[in-house]
Write a structure and sequence with these properties.
Residues 50-161 form the PurM-like N-terminal domain. InterPro entries: HypE (IPR011854), PurM-like_C_dom (IPR010918), PurM-like_C_sf (IPR036676), PurM-like_N (IPR016188), PurM-like_N_sf (IPR036921). The chain contains 8 helices and 14 strands. By secondary structure, it is α+β, with helices and mostly antiparallel strands. It folds into 2 domains: 49-161, PurM-like, N-terminal domain (60s Ribosomal Protein L30, Chain: A, 2-Layer Sandwich); 169-334, PurM-like C-terminal domain (Phosphoribosyl-aminoimidazole Synthetase, Chain A, domain 2, Alpha-Beta Complex). The strands form 3 sheets. A 7-stranded mixed β-sheet has the order 9-11-8-12-10-13-14. A 5-stranded mixed β-sheet has the order 1-2-7-5-6, covered by helices on one side. The chain has a two-stranded antiparallel sheet with strand order 3-4. α5 runs antiparallel to α8 (293-301). The chain is globular.
Length: 347
């Protein structure tokens, strides 16, 4: 007789009464946790986006906070240290802000070698210096051996937003070009290559990078940039679905235009993953009016972190709240919001 009571499902159950890994994946479960638990607790006026723009002393500042639990802590192209700095900078940049100051807290597991902590701290300092931001405050906590996993980092960031710059997911409009700044899925595969022992003909390195300079170049064109988003947890699929739902528009992608490197495609095929749901740490998505797309692309391609920029689709009035892609065979498929997390502990 089949023992149904002992069956398990690899897909996270969305009505579970306990926290599961999927709640931290940036997909539907994360959104439901925020909407139904945190927002009611904090107050209806609060928005828990990656960053918030608030008025201060006659101007506007952007605030952001994030936590980093990536495993392993060191991976091709980076570490948890520079990832934390760049990720916080990018959350600010996606609001159109110029980042200025960071805080960083280390949560250390008892028994972690001080040499490891020092290496991560050095990566934090080097990344902040390279990006032109200052680490101005911080904290350290230690948890019992077995209560953590080496080193976790928590960050906060502050930046300033120029007058006239208004960027947000609700501003996406039919006719907008959807632009990506470069290859998709590289960071997630770089981390998984170490975690799973995968080998490729060439080393897949994380794309972690600070994107505020790229954003500044885009804004300097004078284009009315409607939306910016760094497709981290949940990848391009999660980011585009969130934007489509926020603006009540549809997004139509062209599969043949998606810049998915062969190494990423091969790894995803081997692991049964969708490249559009794999995390990125040095790429951005932009929604800009179609008449401004070429000027924005030229500015992006002239920047070191935007050389692979291209249009991958359009914002449309049809199928509001949905993302679809036209396949290479001429068919159409829906690009769903991830439920949980394909790759836990990626950032």
């Amino acid at each position: 007789m089949i023992d149904f009571d002992n069956w398990s499902c690899p897909v996270p159950l969305r009505d579970t009464p306990q926290v599961v890994m999927g709640h931290g994946g940036g997909g539907a479960m994360s959104g439901e946790l925020v909407e139904h638990l945190f927002l009611p607790a904090y107050g209806s006026a609060i928005s828990l986006a990656d960053s918030a723009v608030v008025p201060l002393l006659g101007g506007r500042i952007a605030l952001s906070t994030d936590s980093y639990v990536v495993k392993p802590m060191f991976f091709p192209g980076g570490s948890i240290g520079d990832l934390a700095v760049n990720g916080t900078i990018n959350d600010l940049a996606m609001s159109g802000a110029a980042p200025l100051y960071l805080s960083i807290a280390f949560i250390l597991q008892e028994g972690t070698p001080l040499a490891t902590v020092g290496k991560i701290a050095a990566a934090v300092g080097a990344a902040a210096s390279a990006a032109g931001v200052q680490v101005v405050t911080g904290d350290t906590k230690v948890v019992d051996n077995g209560s953590g996993d080496g080193v976790y980092l928590n960050t906060a960031g502050v930046g300033v937003v120029d007058a006239g710059v208004t960027i947000g997911p609700t501003l996406a409009a039919p006719g907008d070009a959807v632009i990506i700044s470069g290859d998709i899925g590289v960071h997630g595969v770089a981390v998984m290559s170490v975690r799973s022992g995968l080998e490729f003909e060439t080393t897949v390195s994380s794309d972690t990078a600070p994107l505020h300079g790229l954003v500044a170049a885009m804004l300097a064109t004078g284009a009315d940039v409607h939306v910016l988003r760094d497709p981290t947890r949940g990848g391009v699929a999660a980011s585009l679905n969130e934007i489509a739902r926020a603006a009540k528009v549809g997004v139509a992608l062209d599969e043949t235009s998606l810049p998915i490197p062969a190494s990423v495609a091969d790894a995803c095929s081997l692991l049964g993953l969708d490249p559009l749901q794999v995390a990125n740490e040095g790429k951005l998505l932009a929604f800009v009016p179609s008449e401004s797309a070429e000027a924005v692309l030229d500015a992006m391609r002239a920047h070191p972190y935007g050389g692979g920029a291209r249009v991958i689709g359009r914002c449309v009035a049809e199928h509001p709240g949905m993302v679809v892609t036209r396949t290479a065979l001429g068919g159409t498929r829906v690009v769903n919001m991830p439920i949980g997390e394909q790759l836990p502990r990626i950032c």
